[in-house]
Amino acid sequence: MNFQKFRKVLNAQKVFSRRDIVKEWPDFNFVNLVNWQEKGYLLKLRNTWYAFPDVLQTEADLFFVANQLRKPSYISLEAALRYYNWIPESVFTITSITTAKPVEWQTPVGYFSYRSIKPQLFFGYQTVKGESADFNMAEPEKTLLDLLYFHPEYTEPADFEALRLNQEEIVKLLKTDRLNRYLELIASPTLELRWKSIEKYIGL
Asked: Is the pTM of this model over 0.85?
């Protein structure tokens, strides 16, 4: 197999699996992948997933990778807080929500963490058209609700101080009617109480 031909076919996918390779070349010799990794032509992300070293350049690319490595999934929690400029610190772990089993993976391009949620709570995200890749991102309202759902220790306004939440930016983006609708769908009195705490802290 000629590497240039291989790359020309799969380059646009950014990340690809062995299954993708077999779709194109049913008799593909997977020893090629080992050889190309040794030469630096390929990165092995995890198990059966690969990428070309110079393709993943932007944050959008990494969000796309996170969506691909675990399906279905969308970016949320701290990664989404930073995406919306709601926290000042850089985030070194891209955390996603999934209906599959929770897992964490260290890869050559970043650390990916997946938190599991019930299928009926898997909503409140949108597909964002990134400059270099599209990705699933939690909506602002679901970002905060996911934060409260997975961090039950956040119960009082003082608990949110450590996060250094940007209250002004939150107020700009948050749609309270949508958030209240999501609270009705989740139907958790405990989560509603936690929301009242962060609502008071934000100043809505």
From this structure: yes
